[in-house]
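stuck on this fold:
=====
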Amino acid sequence: MKLLRESLLKAMAVSLNVEENCFLDQCGEHGNMIARFNFYPLCPRPDVVLGVKQHADSSAITILLQDKEVEGLQVLKDDQWFRVPVVPYGLLINVGDQVEIMSNGIFKSPVHRVLTNAERERNTLAIFIMPDVAVE
């Protein structure tokens, strides 16, 4: 995970034509990685019950391993919700608030939510990459 974290932060910096270690240095050597397993059970009323309400991640980056078959993640763009298709065994990389701040708003921390499903349960693994709180 540490190598993936470093590769992502370096690639994002290079894409903005700034020094390769710019975001990595701002996140620090000893940032936390918090893993959260999510289980969304069947829901008889998915029209009125959300799995997770709309929010943006406070992390630097979130790495999500989605359920390999069941959709549920949606992102908000131009006041409209769009479904995020499942890519079996793929990793979804989500920019968090910290990278939005570090990039002066060039990278956006998307508002997203999770829907429930009336027919199938859903499992995901989210890994939140957090900056080192000791770095200024």
Remarks:
- Helices lie at 2-15, 22-27, 97-102.
- The CA atoms of residues 34 and 62 lie 9 Å apart.
- The mean pLDDT is 95.
- Residues 31-129 form a domain with the Jelly Rolls fold (CATH 2.60.120.10).
